[in-house]
Amino acid sequence: MKRLSTLVDVFLVLALFSCSTWTVWSSSCCNQINLNEVRPHSVSITEFGAVGDGITLNTKAFQNAIFYLNSFADKGGAKLFVPAGRWLTGSFDLISHLTLWLDNDAVILGSTNSDDWPVVDPLPSYGRGRELPGGRHRSLIYGCNLTDVVITGNNGTIDGQGSIWWNNFWNKTLNYTRPHLVELMNSTGVLISNVTFLNSPFWTIHPVYCSHVTIQNVTIIAPLSSPNTDGINPDSSDNVCIEDCYISTGDDLISIKSGWDGYGISFGRPSTNINIRRLIGKTTSAGIAIGSEMSGGVSEVHAEDIYIFDSHSAIRIKTSPGRGGYVRNVYISNMILANVDIAIRFTGLYGEHPDDTYDPDALPVIERITIKDVIGVKVKHAGLIQGIKGDNFVNICLSNITLNVSSKLPWNCSYIKGFSDLVSPEACEPLKERIFPEHCSDCYYLPNHLKSLSNQNWGAWLLS
């Protein structure tokens, strides 16, 4: 058997490869979306006067091209081709039955003028901008009420040039909440693949109120010092598949959300059926996070074959009194961690409320969380798992977890209850009840179509 240090070396090498390299030995697990692979109509952005010199503003060219292609929406759809070049633009809208295709050396650049990112209404499930009361800047690439929309290509790049936004955040000179790089809202049948996303002003990819979303083979990069540059944030969305991605950002790599306090409770749209597979990344925050805005509920989350390195935490659930909602039926397996401060972190007192009208008695329900088959080296703390007094987090199930931990107090647990088996260092007292393996069926039923994948245990394969 190889040493664990050798395993770290293996993964550091893997991390240098692109996602497309990793897919050579992986197989797609996402249900295929019924999208038109070939659009019968195609135009180049250059046909609408765009200039790819990195200086000329091409917002009108993108808007005019998409307006023209809208006439083909009921004729099989259309493709907007972005060739090699540096295409500076402000915010523009996508349409249904459209493929935005970026060539290999194509770079869509976000304008550094905030006037080119219009201000729009806050999301109803948030009640205000995430950072400031009132509206928010619209994302660079935006779509609402769409069906069958694709952002793909030959690994072209979308660069938000976010440093001006980050500076305004740090200097407290923002007038409105910063924009995302890509936001699709109230849309169905979304595919984002084979594109590199750089330097988002705020969250990078934000599907909100969406169904049937697939994000595959994408690279997302922002400086580790950049504030709140989350990678992918499924928000009040269902049937989302994220696989074969490399993400390195200044906040959570993937953060599952569903609305903020009373606004999210009232809106009442959960995030459910979220599948994450074959993710590599590092961050100053968490690899996979749920919350803190989870008031509409989060359930049926499946994550497997994950490698997190040089990060603050690997798995995190964030919530607070006033959130309401629930997080349940979460199953995370086959993780490898290297140089991570906290492997498992649950925070029940996260705070951050949109206003003073929240109900402190709206307590979240956190239950049936299973984490199994985890190996970690150079980990400082195994777990910081803190529920809420009078509102225990229950049925937390840990199994087959081996962590090389440097702290003399590897676990810090409060207001939780659950089970553990084959956990090293030994789990904290509230998780020492052992009814394994029967308790896993009580905590969470692993769907049949995932059982065969779980049995493959790719971590064991690498160690053999």
Automatic annotation (TrEMBL):
<dbReference type="Pfam" id="PF00295">
    <property type="entry name" value="Glyco_hydro_28"/>
</dbReference>
<keyword id="KW-0964">Secreted</keyword>
<keyword id="KW-0326">Glycosidase</keyword>
<protein>
    <recommendedName>
        <fullName>Pectate lyase superfamily protein domain-containing protein</fullName>
    </recommendedName>
</protein>
<dbReference type="GO" id="GO:0005975">
    <property type="term" value="P:carbohydrate metabolic process"/>
</dbReference>
<dbReference type="InterPro" id="IPR011050">
    <property type="entry name" value="Pectin_lyase_fold/virulence"/>
</dbReference>
<dbReference type="InterPro" id="IPR012334">
    <property type="entry name" value="Pectin_lyas_fold"/>
</dbReference>
<keyword id="KW-0378">Hydrolase</keyword>
<dbReference type="InterPro" id="IPR051801">
    <property type="entry name" value="GH28_Enzymes"/>
</dbReference>
<dbReference type="GO" id="GO:0004650">
    <property type="term" value="F:polygalacturonase activity"/>
</dbReference>
<keyword id="KW-0134">Cell wall</keyword>
<keyword id="KW-0732">Signal</keyword>
<feature type="signal peptide">
    <location>
        <begin position="1"/>
        <end position="26"/>
    </location>
</feature>
<dbReference type="InterPro" id="IPR000743">
    <property type="entry name" value="Glyco_hydro_28"/>
</dbReference>
<comment type="similarity">
    <text>Belongs to the glycosyl hydrolase 28 family.</text>
</comment>
<dbReference type="InterPro" id="IPR006626">
    <property type="entry name" value="PbH1"/>
</dbReference>
